[in-house]
Design brief:
- The structure holds three protein chains of three kinds.
- Chain A is mostly helical.
- Among the domains of chain A are: 170 residues, no CATH class; 46 residues, no CATH class.
- In chain A, 68% of the residues lie in helices and 5% in strands.
- Chain A has a three-stranded antiparallel beta sheet, covered by helices on one side. Chain A has a two-stranded antiparallel ribbon with strand order 1-2. In chain A, strands 7-8 form a two-stranded antiparallel sheet.
- The longest helix of chain A has 36 residues.
- Chain B is mainly alpha-helical.
- Chain B is built from eleven helices and one strand, in the order H-H-E-H-H-H-H-H-H-H-H-H.
- The longest helix of chain B is centred in the middle third of the chain and has 32 residues.
- Chain B starts with a helix and ends with a helix.
- By secondary structure, chain C is an alpha/beta fold.
- Chain C has one domain: 3-Layer(aba) Sandwich (Rossmann fold).
- Helix content of chain C is 33%, strand content 14%.
- In chain C, helix 3 crosses helix 6.
- Chain C starts with a helix and ends with a helix.
- The chains are: A mainly alpha, B mainly alpha, C alpha/beta.
- Chains in contact: A-B, A-C, B-C.
- At the B-C interface, helix 1, helix 2 and helix 10 of B face helix 1 of C.
- Strand 6 of chain A pairs parallel with strand 1 of chain B.
């Protein structure tokens, strides 16, 4: 039953992707239905930026929906919410007035909220899912409040709820007014995108949701936050003010490092992937911030380069993050747990899932020749040219961005060695992992198709990047930042940097085959003998002797302990009749979340204190309430 | 046609020169402490012996364990082709430092996976430490790249070599020297030399790189050792040719390649001597002091970049 | 660092040539020609302590010093038996170490051989007949060469190894 809905959603996605690509290539159309939505009517408009994001949502929905047929197709619950979710995400980029946008945005949030709560199904982690849903709803509505405040201000000032009118009126506002609105809108959109410190809902909601929903939430939904930021900065409130770009750059760099630092120490596979999404959103925000800064400094070529890099990373991240979440879902489906401390050895039980996860891991770690490497490379090339901005303050911000991004890139490699190595390699650490089964065919098809898409996005970089640069050019007019040379070489900013992905892929392939062929020719390949792992002659080799996920992250916990602030607790229970025999030892060394401790806990306490004070008003006495009504009536009569 | 000849020659120089470099280092280190030491071409004899052994492969491992030596060797061969070794324009002319560092990370990624694959505590420990050191060295690399790219206005390796050699006075610029020292420390960390990691240690608890390869034998071990030697040679050649690019010819005629080879040889002898002296004189750092060393190299990188801005 | 360089230049190379045949008493069996040819220029040794008193280990340790310098013959010690060609076993093989020694032998890739060093390794030495001792390495793994002594001096060890490899000195 659910399978039918998922299949229809896949078709919808495919159609939307085609329409989106048409929009990117120049098709323009508008749709207006006045009576469908109150206060302005339904208004949709296709342009290049909307086309890109519609294509992103559509193309992302196709493999994930096919996957969902295998993962959750037998159930009815959640299928309709999923379809509504995808449909709402398709409308958001197309929306051309406030009510349409807000309605679509809220539908998207509500549908995903329902799906997050759905994780409480079968009694598994019911409390955790409920908490995750609550935090998610809270953050998303706090963000919506900021969005509405900003949008209503603009509506009041321009007298119209239509985005086209805002774009036309933008240059007439002062810098202060535009910055105020931008700050409100940026808060709302950054909360949706998952920028630190507004990211707290991401690591709760994404693991709690079913895997196909997590794939879409991480791969596509959080990018709509970036879409909003771009629309706000480059259309509704143009021209960009320099501090906007610097703020986004810093938030991006901090998100990148914080995201991956928390990902490394996590033992839950899906939460690790959620934190990694925060890392990648940080990279996108760095590119976006750089684009805004270059635009404000009157360097349109570099702004286009940075924006094209951000778009490319958005597309790439959608591809490899949905692949990783689908593979993680397959692990959960086959092995029954997503706790890495209980997994292991799955490469032998789930070879297809393992191979797909490996492709996703190599891509997200930014290793050649896959797509993550190319988009990170492009982002770095944009950042490295910041010397053309003659302000030392900007140069300093860019240098911080470069260092932060480099650290995040290195840490991401470590994180995904851990994620793949502990989950799939060596011996299984529990019974459920030892008896895992492979995913059904349709799930495998979806994952393999997405893995192929990752490779295609990398090899086809010399077609994709110029197309994305053309989309960017509709927002910031300027000369094309990237040209294509011989061997499909990407030439960035003239001869500042060059890269030919097909050549690298070919060279790697040849380099890997060469020693193999040489050894075969030399007949120097005796058949290996099988024996046990070398363990110093120990008599027993079990899974208990392997490295654990937490042990793997130990060097990082030590180096960054000023950030994790772990609280060590050691409880030793002695035997009651003797003070020499230990009955039980309990050791805990959890990392604490710095943003929760420093920002949200004090905020929560302050809110509760204020609420307690104002609760005096609710005395419970009906006489007092009648008195309130009378007083309000009097005040209204006097004022009106 | 010349490009093909250059590619073949450059690959041969690295493939054959790498074991020679490692052997020379060992002999030099031995002489500095009063040993007669092995002959400089000993690694060739070791590799030949290893190729004839029957590998022992653990039941716990998967195809990743057997594929990793080839991936590692392949990545190093491509890195060798992307470095300006013999001439200022390497065969993979489009390559920049970021691509080169990412190729090294690709090798580290798979080697770390192979270390985890055997399911032994040694392998896991080696993998965990190796990726930690590699991750912490990344920001320094990027800042050194930034400093070089600022000066030469390109991240293309061939371009950097050409522009720095066109203006020799750039090489004694303090920013340049600071970047060199920072990159030297990164080289020590990435190739597993003292004081970060002792390549000749037998104590597993002190190992970083060696612990990951404890499970390899026969031809797999030969490939991994060869790849490590190539990584060292590529790093030393980068240090030699990027920071002191005199003698690196611009053309790709056979005569120019020979001249480039001789110049590179001379620079490598000096670097090898300095490295041997350094490794003999200082002791290995405690593992948890290595991040401090890398932080120090990061600070040098920051100083180098600031110096570029201040001295424009 | 310069102090190290000065020291090195001052003392020079102190390696001694290996002892002549008549100076050392040793008992050895020659390895098969094929193995000998393979390893005469490059040998990796994994030393296994099968319950020895560590006297032999101290003498073996002397081999890596500057005076006896094993590395000049292309021989070096390795940490993992996977990397080794030869197991240099000392000790009478206590019962607790017998299985570990067997597994170490199995973990070594072919072609491989065993050199037993010391009187304990040949037949149990002064521990022969003890309840805790198996009695000689040959009871657990095949032995290809034997170096007698309690403990054998580094010169004897070196001579024995070179003899087993058939290396001209």
């Amino acid at each position: 039953m659910g399978a039918l809905v998922y299949a229809l959603t896949a078709l919808l996605g495919a159609g939307a992707a085609a329409a989106g690509v048409a929009g990117m290539l120049g098709a323009r159309w508008a749709l207006r239905i006045d009576w469908l939505v109150p206060l302005g009517g339904l208004e949709l408009q296709m342009d290049a930026l909307a086309g890109l994001f519609v294509a992103l949502v559509g193309a992302g929905a196709v493999p994930v929906s096919l996957y969902a047929i295998g993962y959750a197709g037998r159930e009815r619950r959640g299928a309709l919410a999923y379809a509504v979710f995808v449909a709402a995400m398709l409308v958001v980029p197309l929306a051309a007035n406030v009510m349409t946008f807000v309605l679509a945005w809220e539908l998207m949030s509500l549908a995903s909220y329902v799906l997050v709560l759905d994780g409480a199904r079968a009694g598994r982690e019911a409390a955790a899912s409920a908490y995750a849903g609550w935090v998610y709803a809270l953050m998303t509505h706090a963000g919506l409040a900021c969005l509405l405040a900003g949008m209503l201000l603009l509506t009041a000032w321009t007298g119209s709820p239509r985005f086209a009118d805002w774009t036309a009126a933008a240059p007439t506002f002062g810098v202060g007014a535009r910055s105020l609105v931008w700050a409100l809108l940026a808060l709302g959109f950054a909360a949706k995108a998952g920028g630190v410190p507004l990211h707290v809902w991401l690591p709760l909601a994404h693991p709690a949701a079913p895997s196909h929903v997590s794939a879409l939430m991480s791969g596509v939904m959080i990018k709509l936050g970036v879409y909003g930021l771009l629309r706000a900065s480059l259309a509704w409130l143009a021209p960009a003010v320099p501090w906007w770009g610097a703020a986004l750059l810093l938030v991006g760099a901090v998100s990148a490092v914080v995201g991956v630092l928390y990902a490394i120490v996590d033992r839950d596979l899906k939460r690790l992937l959620a934190f990694s999404s925060i890392d990648n959103v940080g990279i996108v925000l760095v590119g976006t911030g750089a684009a805004l800064t270059f635009a404000a400094a009157d360097l349109p070529g570099l702004a286009l380069l940075a924006l094209a890099a951000a778009f490319y990373h958005i597309v790439n991240h959608a591809a490899f993050k949905s692949l990783l979440f689908m593979a993680a879902g397959s692990v959960l489906h086959g092995a029954g747990t997503r706790d890495m401390e209980a997994l292991g050895g799955l490469i032998k039980r789930q070879p297809w899932t393992a191979a797909c996860f490996l492709v996703g891991a190599v891509a997200i770690a930014g290793l050649p020749p896959l797509n993550g490497f190319v988009s990170e490379w492009l982002t770095f090339q944009a950042l490295l040219q910041n010397v053309l901005i003659p302000q030392p303050a900007s140069n300093l911000v860019f240098a911080l961005g470069i260092a932060g991004l480099a650290l995040a890139a290195g840490l991401a490699v470590a994180c995904f060695v851990k994620a793949f190595g502990i989950t799939f390699l060596a011996l299984p650490r529990s019974e459920t992992a030892a008896s895992a089964h492979e995913a059904p065919v349709i799930m495998r098809v979806a994952m393999v198709a997405t893995a192929a898409a990752c490779a295609a996005l990398a090899l086809g970089a010399s077609w994709v990047v110029p197309a994305l640069a053309a989309v960017a050019a509709t927002l910031i007019p300027g000369p094309p930042p990237v040209t294509v040379g011989a061997w499909r070489t990407l030439e960035v900013s003239g001869d500042f940097a060059t890269l030919s992905v097909p050549a690298v892929a070919l060279a790697l392939g040849a380099g890997i085959l060469l020693p193999f062929v040489a050894l075969v020719a030399l007949r120097a390949r005796p058949r290996p003998r099988r024996y046990e792992t070398w363990s110093c002659g120990r008599l027993l080799q079990t899974a208990r002797m392997e490295y654990t996920a937490i042990a793997f992250a130990d060097p990082f916990t030590r180096v960054f302990d000023f950030f994790y602030r772990p609280v060590k607790r050691l409880d030793i229970d002695m035997h009651p009749e003797s003070r020499f025999f230990v009955r039980r030892i309990r050791y805990e060394n959890p990392t604490r979340f710095i943003v929760d401790d420093w920002l949200y806990a004090p905020l929560g306490r302050a809110l509760r204190a204020v609420a307690r004070r104002t609760a005096i008003v609710q005395s419970g006495s009906p006489n007092l309430y009648v008195a309130y009504v009378l007083a309000a009536l009097l005040v209204l009569l006097l004022v009106a | 046609m010349d490009v093909v000849l250059l590619a073949v020659l450059q690959a041969a120089v690295v493939a054959l020169g790498a074991p020679l470099m490692v052997g020379t280092l060992r002999t030099l280190k031995a002489r500095l402490v009063g040993h007669r030491g092995p002959v400089p071409w000993q690694p060739f004899l070791d590799l030949r012996k290893l190729l004839a052994k029957t590998p022992v492969v653990s039941d716990t491992t998967s195809w990743i364990f057997r594929a990793t030596p080839y991936v590692l060797a392949g990545a190093m061969l491509v890195a060798a082709l992307a470095t300006p070794l013999l001439t200022s324009r390497p065969p993979l002319a489009f390559a920049g430092i970021i691509l080169l560092m990412s190729l090294f990370l690709l090798g580290t990624f798979f080697l770390a996976l192979a270390g985890l694959d055997a399911g032994s505590a040694f392998g896991g420990m080696g993998s965990s430490r190796e990726v930690a050191v590699a991750a912490l060295a990344e920001p320094t690399v990027m800042l050194a790249v930034f400093a070089l790219a600022l000066r030469a206005n390109t991240t293309n390796l061939g371009g950097i070599v050409e522009r720095v050699s066109a203006e020799p006075q750039l090489a004694i610029n303090p920013a340049h020297l600071l970047a060199f020292v920072a990159f030297f420390i990164v080289m020590l960390a990435e190739t597993g030399r003292l004081p970060v990691d002792n390549p000749a240690t037998h104590l597993e608890l002190t190992m970083i790189h060696e612990a990951m390869v404890l499970e390899y034998s026969g031809r797999h071990l030969a490939l991994v050792e060869w790849a490590s030697a190539m990584k060292l040679l590529v790093f030393l050649s980068l240090l030699a040719n990027l920071f002191f690019p005199w003698g690196v010819p611009a053309g790709i005629t056979p005569l120019a390649m020979l001249g480039g080879l001789l110049a590179l040889g001379a620079k490598l002898v000096v670097l090898a001597g300095a490295l041997a002296l350094l490794e003999t004189a200082i002791a290995k750092l405690r593992l948890f002091r290595v991040p401090e060393l890398l932080a120090g190299s990061f600070a040098l990188g920051v100083l180098s970049v600031s110096a570029v801005f201040l001295l424009r | 660092m310069l102090r190290q360089l000065a020291l090195a230049l001052q003392h020079g190379i102190v390696t001694e040539p290996p002892a002549r045949e008549d100076e050392v008493e040793r008992l050895g069996a020659r390895l098969a020609d094929e193995i000998r040819a393979r390893f005469s220029r490059s040998l990796a040794i994994r030393q296994v302590d099968a319950g020895s008193c560590n006297g032999c280990e101290l003498e073996i340790g002397g081999l890596t010093g500057p005076h006896y310098d094993l590395e000049r013959f292309g021989v070096h010690f390795v940490a993992s038996p996977r990397h080794a060609d030869c197991l240099l076993v000392t000790g009478p093989v206590t019962r607790n170490m017998a299985e570990a020694l067997r597994r170490t032998w199995q973990a070594t890739p072919d072609p491989k051989f065993v050199v037993a060093a010391g009187d304990c390794a040949s037949d149990g030495g002064i521990f022969r007949g003890s309840y805790a001792v198996v009695g000689g390495v040959h009871e657990v793994v095949p032995v290809h060469a034997l170096i007698a002594g309690c403990p054998p001096s580094p010169a004897a060890l070196l001579a024995g190894l070179l003899d087993a490899l058939g290396r001209p000195r």
